[in-house]
Every structure is written in C-alpha cells, then in structure tokens.
Amino acid sequence: MNTSLVLTLDMRRAxxxxxxxxxxxxxxxxxxxxxxxxxxxxEKDWDFDKKMIRKSFTGTSSVTRLNNYLxxxxxxxxxxxxxLKEEDKLKFMSITQIKNILTKGNLSHSxxxxxxxxxxxxxETERFGNEKAYKTLLGVLKGFHSSKDLTFEExxxxxxxxxxxxxxxxxxxxxxxxxxxxxxxxxxxxxINSELIDxxxxxxxxxKIKTTPTEKRALDGKDVKKxxxxxxxxxxxxxxxxxxxxxxxxxxxxxxIDMAFLKLxxxxxxxxxxxxxxxxxxxxxxxxxxxxQILEHYIKDKKENDFVFPIIKRKKxxxxxxxxxxxxxxxxxxxxxxxxxxxxxxxxxxxxSRHSFATEALLNNIPLSAISQMLGHSSLTTTQIYLKxxxxxxxxxxxxxxxxx
Length: 405
Prior knowledge:
The chain is mainly alpha-helical. It has helices at residues 63-86, 95-102, 105-109, 111-124, 128-144, 157-169, 174-193, 221-229, 238-250, 256-260, 289-299, 317-342, 352-363, 368-375, 380-386, 392-401, and strands at 3-9, 20-28, 31-41, 46-47, 52-53, 267-268, 271-275, 282-286.
C-alpha cells in the first residue's frame, strides 16, 4: 500500500511546558503530513521503538488506558484508509484530502461548525453577500434548534419538514423558506464535495424545496414614463431614488448593488462596461441620451476610481456592503413615495426596474436571445423562466387581439 499511518512524537513543536504532541503521521505516495491526537508528553515518556507512552508518564491515572485510546485513533484511521482503498478512491486522492477525512471529527459532522468555517472563508475572500446569507441561516437555525450544536446527520427529511412548519407558523412564505433551504443544500454539497460527510446524509433527494409564484413585479411603459416625468428638485430626498430607478431601467435592468459599485472607470467612449457581482458576467452596452442626462449629474468632477452614484460612503469593502444594504432599504422606502406621487398602484422595489425592462423589451418584439444577453443570463432557459408570466393586463391585450373581427 502506498499509504501508511504511524503514531509518533512531533519533536518539532515543543509546548511551553516542555511536552511534545503525539501525532498520527500520514504517508501517501511519497508525501507526508500529520495531525494531533490531542495528547502531549515529555520526550522521556515516549517509547520511540514501540510507538507508545512509557509507564513512567505521570499525567494520567492509567497509562494503559491512554495507550489504548491512542491505538483506537490509529485503528479508526486505518479502517477509513482501507475503506477508501476498497472503494478505489484512495489512489486518486491528495494527502490533504485524506487528512481532511481523517480529521473530520466533530467539525465535519457539526453543521454549525462547518457553516461557521465557510463564513470565515467568505470574509477572507471578500464574498460578503455569501457571508450574510450563511450567517442569516445560521441565526435562524440556532433559533429553531434548541441544543448548542446540530450535526449533518440530524438534518434529515423529518428535520427539514419540522423547520418548514416552524417557518410557516410565523407567517413567513414558502419563497422565504426556499432561500434558507437552498443555502442548507449548498452547505451539504460543499461538505460532500470536500469529502467531509458521506452522500448518504444528503436529505434533498427526499425533501423537495417548495416555492410559490410571486406577484408580477413589472411596470408597463406608461408607469415608467410617469416616473421619468416626475418633477423632483435636486435637494429632495426622492431625487436620487427616481434617478436610480430610471438609470437601472436604462442600463438593462442593472441591479442596485451593481449600480452602487459602478465606477467612473466603467464608463468609457459612450459605453458602460462592468462585471456583474452576482454572476461575474460582463455587461457592455451603449449609453442612450436619456441615460447620459442622468449620468452627467453624477460623474461631474469625479475621478476614474470614484463611484458614480453616492451610495457607498466608506472605504473598507465589508463596510461598503453594509452601506449598500442600508441604502437599499432607504431606496425601497422612497420608491413607495414615488409610487404614491405617480399614482402607480403596483408595489415598487429595487427589483421592479429590472423586471420592467425585461417585460417591456419582450413587448417591443426584441428577440428573446437579445433580452437574455442584455439581462446577462447564461441561457435562454433562465430568461424564459424570468419572463414566464406576463402581467394580467398584457395578457388581456393579447387575448383581445385574438378576437374574431
């Protein structure tokens, strides 16, 4: 076998009390690494030939019991190695993957601990949107699950069904539940792909994530024109709100967070070119006259690295995401006031401009493939789902056109 395990004393890492950690050293295809057993002894108390603690060790009431404990750890690790070999997986694995499997212990089985580890990784890689989603889920699950920890094994069909009932009993929606369930599913997939848990614990083969159709968010062209024609003074709190909505609509339904991070350097030679934060897909489109009238107000006297819109106030990236979140809440609140002033019955949110752009493009006979590209979708299927239901008044218009005349 090209993989071996041995109990030994790690003489490279002396502790403050002069002891050294007892480790299990892994050798795999001429590479080696190790992990601690959690036990430390003085050099004189370790038998290097027999790979065990000497009877001279005084740190325990029973040296025999302690050696048995160490041997059990080694035997358990050997069993895992043998199982991987029988499944024909071992030869394809790196030594790091093997170590992860052998050391998974509580971390791999603890859903809470593994999720907290992922959250730290998101912070380190500055993926603060993911960090927020995972942190929110963690808080909700800890509120639902009364014990201090939650293992992957416990999250089965019954657990998810009870969590569903808990969520709905508080007056929440299936769509809100779906957000949590998709995050749980993503965490399971990460744990399985890292080979920290077995596929047999995956609960989503039985449990199906449920959603309900949402009310159509799109405005018709007449309502968009009302917002365009609304007279708002520069010092009015609604001035930026109206401009953000129109700018989003005129920039192919640009999301609020992408507008917030848009810089002057993204505007060049009469075009806007940027990479969408959610999908990393590049957008590139010409600036229309209407859009330029809005942008000119914001880009005056700004430098290349300045943000176009006054949404982000701070310099640290994590703080900037918080700025966007607070600004979005204010934006949505102000959109309610815009709707009142324009006598628009539909609910306005930061997503409405994107949906309105897509729907209006379809109604203007713009090919679906072009709409898909403008929205930044990776496939036509995504666009078809996005536009799967038109507003009732539009459907009524189509029905009327089919009358026999």
